Amino acid sequence: MTNNQSTSTPKLASGLEIGSVAEQYMAEGQYKAALEKFQGSLGVLVPLLSSEPKGRRRDLLHQQIQLWLVQAENTKSLLSLTDMNGANIAEAKEH
């Protein structure tokens, strides 16, 4: 393992762990926390993808990033809808 690979491996493990925690938050319905974790994970993993050599590990990392990008966008949309519904309920109570 080269020096570059050994220094990126802990970051890779950390990014994957953060993403796994995000999935757990999603399963528990804690969407704001999940979104924060997805963003943190992607912030670590996306830069690593460009330095990852071609091969199975890079392909798997790319697939995981794509999955978490979609989940982050879906979570963001869900939170946006929740905020809009909350605003509509508050407005209805005022009238």
- Per CATH, the class reads Mainly Alpha
Structural class label: mainly alpha
Mean pLDDT: 86
Q: Helix fraction?
A: over 70%
CATH architecture: Up-down Bundle
Number of strands: 0
The largest pleated sheet is described as: none
Please name the fourth-level CATH homologous superfamily.
Phosphotransferase system, lactose/cellobiose-type IIA subunit
Low-confidence blocks of residues:
1-7
Instruction: Write down the overall geometry.
Output: elongated
- What pattern of helices and strands is seen along the backbone? HHH
Number of domains: 1
First-residue to last-residue Cα separation: 67 Å
- Total DSSP helices: 3
Mind explaining what this structure looks like?
α2 (31-51) packs antiparallel against α3. The chain is built from 3 helices and no strands. The longest helix is centred in the last third of the chain and has 39 residues, at 56-94. The chain starts with a helix and ends with a helix. The chain is an all-alpha fold and 95 residues long. It has one domain: Methane Monooxygenase Hydroxylase, Chain G, domain 1, CATH 1.20.58.80. 89% of the residues lie in helices and 0% in strands. It holds the Pfam family MIT. This is (California timema) hypothetical protein. It comes from Timema californicum.
